[in-house]
Structure formats: C-alpha cells, structure tokens
C-alpha cells in the first residue's frame, strides 16, 4: 500500500491538517512544529489533538511527520545559536508526546567552517541533551544536498551521528530524493546501488520516511531546489520506480514540491497513485 501525503500548513491545527489530507487522498502529512524561521511554537489544544487522532484512526492514517524549523542549527559556531537550537528541539519533542509514536525530522545542521568532525560532535551533543529513554517519538536525520557546509549529504555522516547518540534506537533517517540526487547519489539510473549503499552504511531498517521531490538541478549540483513531480531532473519514471521499489514498501512518502494549492498536491498524489503497481 502506498502511504503518501504532503507538507501542510499547521496554522489551523491538527484536525484541519487531517481533513486537508483526506481531501487529497493522503494518509499522512508533514507540518512545521513552529514557524519555519523559528520563534514560538503554537499552543497545543488537547481537544484538537484528540479530534485529529480520532480522524486518523477512522481513516487508517499512517504515521505523520513533524519538521523542525530551518533556523535550527545544532552545529552553529555561535554557542547562543546552538543553545536556541537545543531549546527548540527539547520543546518540540515534549510537544510531540501529545502525538505518540510519530516522527520528528530535522536538518542535521551546517558546521559553518568548524569542520565536519566538530559539526557531527555538536549535533550528537544536542541530541543527547534533549532525548530521554521514555520518549515515544523517533527522530529522523534528513539527508541533505550538501549546500555550503551542510552536514548529512553523505550517508556515512548520518551513520556517525546515529553511532554517537546514547539512544540510537530512537533515531532514523528521512531520505529526501531531491537532496540525495543533488548530493551525487544516482537514484535515477542506479537506484538499487544507492539503496544497497544506504543499507551497508546506515541500514535500511533506519529509513522511515522519504521526502518525494523532483529536483531543478542535475545530479551532484549541491543546490537543493525542489521541482514538481516529473518536472525536474529526476523525472516521473524514476520517481515511480522509487515508490514501487520492493525495499521501500515500509516507508511513507511526503511531497515537498513547490505547489501553491492543496489541489496541486492532490494532482500529484493522484498521479503517483496511478503509477503505483503494488496492491
Ligand atoms: Fe527538510
Ligand atoms: Fe526535505
Ligand atoms: Zn530541500
């Protein structure tokens, strides 16, 4: 079964997102935990969460995905930015407990010239400061395009982070198709090889979600500009091979394509469902 949804605005609450997902035949979605540029999180309304959980169960939703704000940088050279980043993640994870058993995705960070080793050490430090043994959320590291000094454009970097945290059983990976292609992994012509490499370096059991995006730029461009499905360098055929791949049937897919309307996402979901060939 194809589990698919898209990024939605969280401004009207969880129930509203659930209803939007239903309108476009999605059974999951992604949302920002707070303004993507940072700032204060919206207050959790317990009746809104309860109504959403009921809707999700009635319509057999799969897991949903929270996305941390872009301003989070666990490996900034500035200690006050690192503290801000840590506080945001700690608060986000507490709030995620209202939706137990779901996923929280974040960009590992940009080491801004401190070097990969320092960057990775600081990311591990943040994770160890905010995670706790009873948390019910799995934290996902997003694969990055390798823009600037981004950490996480190589599978080995993600592996080093997972190996460094005290609670690795609560860690997973979200693979962004635009990002990995921009990072130089050829998921268009060598998907099997890339998945084999992912499995060897990280382990496919860590792969929980896929951000399904086409890319405006060629492989290895390190750019990170998302394109609509079928309108970029990956192309519809390659994207359909991804959703149909036998090793990717346990993950859920989230569209982060540059759509202005819910209907735009609805059309992409319909297109992808039409090229899904498993039951
Ligand atoms: Fe992201
Ligand atoms: Fe993404
Ligand atoms: Zn991106």
Task: Describe the structure in your own words.
This protein is an alpha/beta fold and 279 residues long. It is 38% helix and 16% strand. Strands 1-2-3-4-6-8-9-12 form an 8-stranded parallel barrel. A two-stranded antiparallel ribbon has the order 5-7. Strand 1 (4-7), helix 1 (14-23) and strand 2 form a beta-alpha-beta unit. One fe (iii) ion binds next to loops. Zinc ion binds next to helix 6.
Secondary structure layout plus pairing:
Layout: E1 4-7, H1 14-23, E2 28-32, H2 46-58, E3 65-67, H3 79-96, E4 103-106, E5 109-110, H4 116-130, E6 138-142, E7 150-151, H5 155-164, E8 171-176, H6 177-182, H7 191-201, E9 207-212, E10 214-215, E11 226-227, H8 235-244, E12 252-255, H9 262-274
Parallel strand pairs: 1-2, 1-12, 2-3, 3-4, 4-6, 6-8, 8-9, 9-12
Antiparallel strand pairs: 5-7, 10-11
Helix pairs in contact: 1-2, 3-4, 4-5
The structure holds fe (iii) ion (2 copies) and zinc ion.
